[in-house]
Design goal:
Elements: H1 4-7, H2 14-22, H3 25-32, H4 39-50, E1 51-54, E2 68-70, E3 73-75, E4 79-81, H5 94-105, E5 109-111, H6 119-123, E6 129-133, H7 139-152, E7 156-160, H8 170-173, H9 205-213, H10 222-229, E8 234-239, H11 242-250, E9 255-258, H12 272-283, E10 288-291, H13 298-306, E11 311-314, H14 316-347, H15 353-356, E12 360-363
Parallel strand pairs: 4-11, 5-6, 6-7, 7-8, 8-9, 9-10, 10-11
Antiparallel strand pairs: 1-12, 2-3
Helix pairs in contact: 2-14, 5-14, 11-12, 13-14
Length: 370
């Protein structure tokens, strides 16, 4: 590897400090910040840190398999890239670089409603592409995006259900973040819609944009409309309560993402990892269960699998890799996750992902095994 910065990436977490050194301060705060006092942001990591794997021994791990089908498509890892807005604010190549890296790593990439690159161009990279949808006030525009996603060849639709409005994020409210020139939410065309172009103290331009275009009336009844307007498998992102998971499975959701939006919505919300076992139990195999919020290593992926997840979504580490090295930076991050997961599986006595799901875990020193 010729780039010295990428050579310094020995773990995914290494990318955070490297990204902070190259990103404009306002963009770095936008990527890394969270809601309120950032209690949930920290709790997400603390939940992983408190959980301990109970390894098995005398298992043949001379060959370790990390591949899994996610939403009907084979993935080299139980991993997909999470939906994240405005990636061209992080690197000029933005979503195209990240999608190409996901393609090269053999994992799905999720295009975002507020992407700075069109879904058609993202899908044209050859990556297995999912499309994330915010429920828009303009129902005609919602239907248009669904048609575009299907026509582009997207393999699944991910509806975000935890964002009736934007969480109160102090860094954004301090008015430091505005989109750089040439970066815009391309799925909105020429519509102004409160695009965060000008920073002003005390106002979150991103929250204002969300209030302008996202419909807070989204309810269970709207899933019927959505099913009528798309043939794509449906993922609901942002589920923490097992009662909601049970209802989603009963409504025919193909997958759920156990997520608190990386701590960026309700501060004080349950850590996603803490919610995972009850959600997995509630759906009882009727749909796939993915997890995001706080995943920073291959061992974290193993812990999620042990608690019932079928896979995880990667968010901030991908953006850090993008900032540091564009396509090669993201690819390095994804390869590191793969290497760490393969090593963790072997050391835990797991020749495959099914064995990981049978591992016992202990929460905290002297905690009760699960």
């Amino acid at each position: 590897m010729t780039d010295p910065a990428l050579a310094d990436l020995l773990t995914p977490a290494d990318a955070e400090a490297l990204a902070a050194a190259v990103l404009p301060a306002a963009v770095e705060r936008f990527v890394g910040g969270a809601a309120g006092a950032e209690l949930t942001l920290r709790a997400n990591r603390a939940a992983f840190d408190r959980l301990h794997i109970v390894p098995r021994v005398l298992a043949d791990v001379s060959s370790v398999a990390t591949a899994r089908a996610l939403l009907g498509t084979e993935s080299a890892l139980p991993v997909a890239v999470a939906p994240m807005a405005y990636q061209r604010a992080v690197h000029p190549d933005g979503e195209l670089a990240a999608a190409r890296a996901a393609r090269d790593a053999g994992v799905p990439f999720t295009a975002c409603t507020f992407s700075s690159t069109a879904v058609e161009d993202i899908a044209a990279t050859g990556a297995t592409t999912w499309f994330q949808l915010y429920w828009l006030r303009d129902r005609g525009h919602t239907g248009e995006l669904l048609k575009r996603a299907e026509a582009a060849g997207c393999r699944a639709l991910m509806l975000t259900v935890d964002t009736p409005r934007m969480g109160r994020r102090a860094a954004d409210m301090r008015g430091t973040f505005a989109l750089p020139d040439g970066v815009s939410p391309v799925h909105f065309g020429a519509r102004p819609d409160g695009v965060p172009r000008t920073a002003s103290s005390g106002v979150s331009a991103v929250a204002a944009q969300t209030a302008n275009v996202v419909d807070p009336s989204l309810s269970w009844a709207d899933l019927d409309w959505l099913r009528e307007h798309t043939r794509l498998p449906l993922i609901l992102k942002g589920v923490l309560d097992p009662a909601d998971a049970e209802r989603a499975a009963a409504c025919g959701a193909d997958a759920l993402v156990v997520s608190n939006h990386g701590g960026r919505q309700l501060d004080g919300a349950l850590p996603a990892l803490g919610a995972l076992p009850a959600v997995a139990e509630a759906v009882a195999g009727r749909c796939e269960v993915l997890l995001d919020s706080g995943v920073r290593s291959g061992t974290d992926v193993l812990k999620a699998l042990a608690l019932g997840a079928d896979g995880v979504l990667l968010g901030r580490p991908v953006l850090w890799g993008l900032a540091v090295g564009g396509h090669q930076g993201v690819l390095r991050i994804l390869h590191l996750f793969g290497e760490e997961l393969e090593s963790a599986l072997a050391l835990a006595g797991c020749p495959d992902l099914a064995a990981a799901a049978r591992l016992r875990t202990v929460t905290g020193p002297g905690g009760e095994p699960r």
